[in-house]
Amino acid sequence: MAQKLFNTQLYRPKDFKGLIADNHFYELYQQKPQLLDKAIQQIYQTNLQGSMVNFVNRFPSMEVELENGFYQWMLKGQEDKNVPLVDIIELADGTSAVTGDVLGAQRQRIQLVFDEPMFERTNVIKGETDDYHFLVKEVHETDGRYAYECELLNDDLAVSFVVGTDVSVGDRFSKFYDLVPGTLSYEGAEPYFTSPFKMQNRLSMCRMQYKVPGSSIEKGQNEPLEFPFMYRGQTESVWINYIDLVVMYQAEEMMARAALYGKKNWTVDSGYLNTDDVNGFEIGAGSGFFEQIAPANRHMYNTFDLDYLMEVALDMSIGKIGRGDRHLHIITGERGAIEIHKQIQSKANGDSIYSNVTNGSGAYGAGAANNTGAINPMSFGYQFVEYNYYNGIKLTVEIADFMDDDVYFPKRHPEGAGIAESHRMIVMGFGESAEIHKVRPKGRDDMYAYIAGLRDPFTAGGKGKTSPKMVSSPIDGYEVHSAKFGGLVMKDPTKVLDFQLNVNQ
């Protein structure tokens, strides 16, 4: 039984689900003394409900052929890449170099070992410093590793490098350029390619159903209820209409939660890991918005650092996004928006230009004269919602109300600052280059059907008329079923950042 919420509450609310019969109406809507408000209103809501649905609906729609199968798309990385060095071999004795070894003088040949066949003869390769260029002379493959016999390329035979200081295992090397003899050259660098790779997801299917006794059809019509329900700003006095209203919204919200937070249940070979206990068929679940974000773009934080977030965004932008297109949206809850404001404020407080501007116009203003006798009442306050960073990066803060829903996200901030999900920050933008779409089956609308019994509100004769009708059930009532297919696809998962509070700190 639900708990009383307020001291002035007369009786406890009752939680119920499934079939609502006459006895429920007598219990829920029995005659009472005069009510000050003739509509049942939900408390602690209005703003949160619908927020997740609205967030999903912001994305454009696309259709796929299969409602119960996989859809796929292709991505391709850039051809230019670097690979990590896994070993340095001294050719003189065939052993791995150790930290402190001095190598390379007098054109001493060494082997740089990698896990990928990235380079070939005539290539000039370099690591993380431009001080040392290596000319590849020979290529050897052993046990899946590739050893490139190299010599230093410079104008001084005395030049050497120190292992662990100048060149280290783990340094990332790239193919920089190519050199061949100017006379009777016989070979050159081969082109290099990066093959595309396949991405995959599927739709999720959500269903709802409910039964209504025939005696409930007239509730609110010929048999008026004591007071109506208010739901999402709509007032409804007819019980069966209210059921339809609630089911419609709840179905939309379930689909939205699956689209955003859904977890896939299929393996790399497209096998499903859940089956139905009744019919034995596989249950397929699509990967939701948050699960699709690239693992490298997920960051856990104990203390939020705006500068770190912007540096990550800058790294994603340089060489990839034009400086005029670096407009980011950060989607967060109310607590996250406050945290961002505080960090921008701390930067602005030390800026004399900002102080001069706000002292003249912006932070100060006329206040309401609620304090009787106050002379020249004033107000003060502001909240930062935008931040301009280096090289054209602009951050705009948007509050997503569903991130403040403590029903579905009850985990609290370790220090009591609201719920943890309210501190989560999703960075989107880059000209919507992530290509996020709502996905639905081609030509398929949401399904809505009923099973007619002796009485139903949909067909002739359904309200006690004398004209006969065909029924699908002998029950005095009817049953409604609805189904939705849907999900979200993030075509480029590298274009979204996820900063999540570490609740285990």
Briefly say what this structure is.
By secondary structure, this protein is of the alpha+beta class. The chain is built from seven helices and 28 strands. The chain has two domains: 14-75 and 197-353 and 379-505, phage-related protein like fold (Alpha-Beta Complex); 82-178, Elongation Factor Tu (Ef-tu), domain 3 (Beta Barrel).
Task: Explain how this protein is built.
With 505 residues, this protein is an alpha+beta fold. The protein folds into two domains: 14-75 and 197-353 and 379-505, Alpha-Beta Complex (phage-related protein like fold); 82-178, Elongation Factor Tu (Ef-tu), domain 3 (Beta Barrel). 15% of the residues lie in helices and 28% in strands. A hairpin with a 4-residue loop joins β5 (87-90) and β6 (95-96). It starts with 21 loop residues before the first helix and ends with a strand.
Instruction: Tally the helices.
Output: 7
Oligomer: single chain
CATH architecture of the largest domain: Alpha-Beta Complex
Distance between the termini: 35 Å
Structural class category: alpha+beta
Q: Report the CATH C-level class of the largest domain.
A: Alpha Beta
Overall morphology? flat
Number of strands: 28
β-strand percent reads 25-35%
The spatial strand order of the largest sheet comes to 4-13-9-10-11-8-5-6
User: Mean pLDDT, rounded to whole units?
Assistant: 78
Percent of residues in helical segments? 10-25%
Give me the CATH fold name of the largest domain: phage-related protein like fold
Give the tally of structural domains. Answer: 2
Radius of gyration using CA atoms only: 33 Å
Enumerate the spans where pLDDT stays under 50 for 5 or more consecutive residues. 6-11, 29-47
Major beta sheet, specifics?
Answer: 8 strands, antiparallel
